[in-house]
Each structure stands twice: as C-alpha cells, then as structure tokens.
Predict the 3D structure of the following.
Amino acid sequence: MKKYVEIITLLVSNKDDRNSIIDRLIEIEGDSSLYEDTFFRMPDDNQDITWLAMVDLLIEKGYAFEIDWKENYSVAKSGIENLLSKWDISNRYQDNNNLYDEYADQFFPKVNAILKELNYTILCLDINSDSYVTVMIPTANEQYFSSLDSRIKKY
C-alpha cells in the first residue's frame, strides 16, 4: 500500500481529494468485492485490484484520464486540459494542430515535447488493456515517480 499512497501523493495536490482516494483505496484493498461493486472493469484473478482501484479512483477525481488506443487527439485534449488545470497551468498550454490526425501512440510523445517547456510530463499507467490511462507529473518528479512501479511508463 505504501507505494500506492506515494503515487497518489505525487499526483494529487488537493488534500481532501488525496485523503478521499487513499481512504477508499484502503477500503478496497481490505475487501476486493468493493472494487467490483463500484467500478466497471472486470479484472481477472491475476490482476492487481489495488492498482486498478487506484487508477479508477484517480480517473474518478480527475487526476487521470483514459482513452482507447484508436482515439484521436481531439478526444485526449480535454483530458490533457483537465490535468493541466489540476496543476493550475492550463492557460500556458498551446497544442500543435498536427496532433489531431494521429493516433495516441503518436501524439502522446509529441504532447510531452510541448509540456516539457512547462516542466510537466504525462505518463501512462498500464492496466493491461488496449487503452491509455494518462497522468501528469512535474518533470522534476518524473524519475522518482516512474521508479515506484514498472507499470508507470513514459510516452
């Protein structure tokens, strides 16, 4: 549980949101049926319910977003803008018109190049599916954040 709390702490600056996510995650870790009662994913027996619950709680509170692999940038843009607003930097982000014609595996690395100027990075939380779960972190914390779990991947 310690690494999940650390991940949440690095991603969620709002104390009330952070405490709410951590408290709910502790409940779900204690009784995995709570996850299945709350979220839409149908995990199999070998999946880490605590990881999936953390991801879904981050999505629920707006500190992560999920898109399908075939979605284009216009779908991801609102998620990126929401993450930017969580870090209070939305007014300084200027995307690139060329992103709109690309798939996620192409545009996410380019978004990172744009965000680099703002000292932020987006990363993927791997949930073993054909979708992308995206979070944002200050670039200064990127290496440490990525070291917390092998399922955290840079675009």
Remarks:
- The chain has seven helices and four strands.
- Residues 121 and 139 are 5 Å apart (CA to CA).
- The chain has a mean pLDDT of 91.
